[in-house]
Give the backbone structure.
Amino acid sequence: MLTASDDRTARVWDLATGKPTDIVLTGHTGRVLQARYSHDGQRILTVSGDKTARLWDATTGAELKEFRGHQWAVLSGAFSPDGQQIVTGSEDHTAKVWDVASGKELVTLPGHTASIASVAFSTDGRRILTGSQDNSVKLWDAATGKELLTLAGHNQEVTSVTFSPNGRDALTAGRDGVAIEWFTTDWNAAPIARSPD
């Protein structure tokens, strides 16, 4: 299990014993706001209030790369399905796509009017969803950074966005207590609103 903490670290835990392992990811100078494994489990991505995202070796805990370019805290991050890119969302109202190998910023996704709380790649890696405190969800072309459409359905901050494993649906959730399923095969179709209970 992987956890992120206000103590500026992320930590790996042994699920069998419930005890921490020797892998402690140390280097951020602000709160670690999210930590997640790559799809192959070999790397870890962390994002922080120190305006950076960092890449780590999941086996040794060694820091591999720092991604620096956001103006404010980085709130969310996600790997592309092939692990070659990451996307980060920030309090600076932008998301950024990065090349993992070089650490280079590939494209900036502007357009939200508030912090971006959640990001996700589509299962084919060609699209990105961003969820924001401006109550909206935006769909982007991952290669060009072009905004494709805005999904309006929440009336409070959008806290979570994700694609289904088969790529046919997207799911968003917000502080309005509502989860919305969107059909990616027809973005003009009306969403299905589902309450938490």
